[in-house]
Amino acid sequence: MFKLTHEGFEKARDYILTNSDDIDRAWFRYNFVDHDASAFMDALGKYQHENGGFGGLVYEFEYQGPCLVCTEMAFRYIFYMKDKPPSTHPVIQKAIQYLLSRYRPDVGCWGEEFEPGVNDGLHAAWMGYSTGSYPPVADIDERIRVYRPNRQAAFAAFIALYSELVPEDIYNDIIFCPVVKILRYYDKASPLYKKSGKNEYFDNDIAVPYNLKCYQQFVKCLKDKPLAEKLAGILCQDPSATMVLDVQKWETCYEELPCEIVVTPDSVVYPAVKDLVDDSLGYVIRQQCDDGAWHTGYRFGEDEGFRPLEALYDAHNTMLTLATIGRFGRIEM
User: Which of 18, 95, 183, 293 has the most CB atoms at less than 10 Å from its CB?
Assistant: First the structure.
């Protein structure tokens, strides 16, 4: 098994501590120094606004106010903490209240994840507020068909993780669309398999990498274990459908590798794609640059104002990569 050398780890560590934002330095300390969950939550709490939403955790735009996009990034940290914060933690309670205040029963999800203010500053072309992108959907079957797991299922996962803080009727409404979407459109035994529609990049929802990434967390957080096992079995039917398996295409820097979709050995789908994930981890380790970083290889835009954001993103990407490699035991410590 190919591992990141101790020298490679030290280079990555130095790059992160020199170039990253406070949250990535805190994430490094949590993963590789003291595993102090309380200290990390204190660091994460500094990015939480009074309304419970988070800001400043996504570097593809300048906007620092609270938004669902940054809030989902905060949840990603919590999902991968070994010891989850208790439901009594003030950061958790405020985050739940923010989610409940933003939830839209008329679409079965949270709707638009960006704030209008994102468009007022520098933002990458793939990041921005879109008016009317989530119109109300009265028909339940259509609501399920158009449900977008990308980010939305991660919000539902957080609600499931801390379901004791959520009224039962609201909880059931929130998990309804992601659960039925899997049952109807991801199960090979269903007559609706792969028939939920196309977008400009993918033929169907099953092929969207980030959908599976969010669904892994959603299924893992469900308290109804028989239901979770059933959904996990469906997701394991063809998880490689989200993955680009042509190694030459990995060189483009635009494709998500198997280990960037399945980022922990605790994933419900890891056993079904273990060899693919393990091979891609070896590939990623070999891509470490001489300065210790894993650089993205593309720009957010031509404006020079993007350069500081790109530098923070590279440090952030390096930290996320190092944490993933570490979770799989692929670092010589």
Answer: 95
